[in-house]
């Protein structure tokens, strides 16, 4: 997993906040929680990688391989207790 920075992740969060997310991208019980919003960690990692390297991350594994680098950057990632009701990250705020 090539390194990404906190700034890359923040850009990814902005992008998801702006564009919303497709519901079927939800494939994990984990959420990255920032402010009052929940984000899908895998998608965050994918977008962050694209911001930094200009290419999609070929493979993103769910669970710890995804969560650990995000946590190491200071983000909160945990099992979401609101599954399957958690949809806060799906709605785009405009
Ligand atoms: Zn959640």
Describe this structure in words.
The structure is a single chain. The N and C termini lie far apart (33 Å). The chain has one domain (6-79). The relative contact order is 0.26. 38% of the residues lie in helices and 13% in strands. By secondary structure, it is α+β, with helices and mostly antiparallel strands. Strand 1 and strand 2 form a beta hairpin. The site of zinc ion (ZN) has 5 residues, from loops.
Descriptive key words:
94 residues; alpha+beta; 3-stranded antiparallel beta sheet; binds zinc ion
Question: What string, H for helix and E for strand, traces the elements in order?
Answer: HEEHHE
What is the beta-strand fraction?
A: 5-15%
Cα distance, first to last residue?
Answer: 33 Å
Name the average pLDDT: 81
Q: What is the assembly state of the chains in this entry?
A: single chain
Shape: globular
Report the uncertain regions: none
Number of strands: 3
How many structural domains are formed by the residues? 1
Radius of gyration based on Cα positions: 12 Å
Could you estimate the helical fraction of the residues in percent?
25-40%
How are the strands ordered across the major sheet? 2-1-3
Task: Report the major sheet.
Answer: 3 strands, antiparallel
Structural class: alpha+beta
Q: In DSSP terms, counting alpha (H) and pi (I) runs of 4 or more, how many helices? A: 3
Q: What hetero molecules are bound to the protein chains?
A: zinc ion
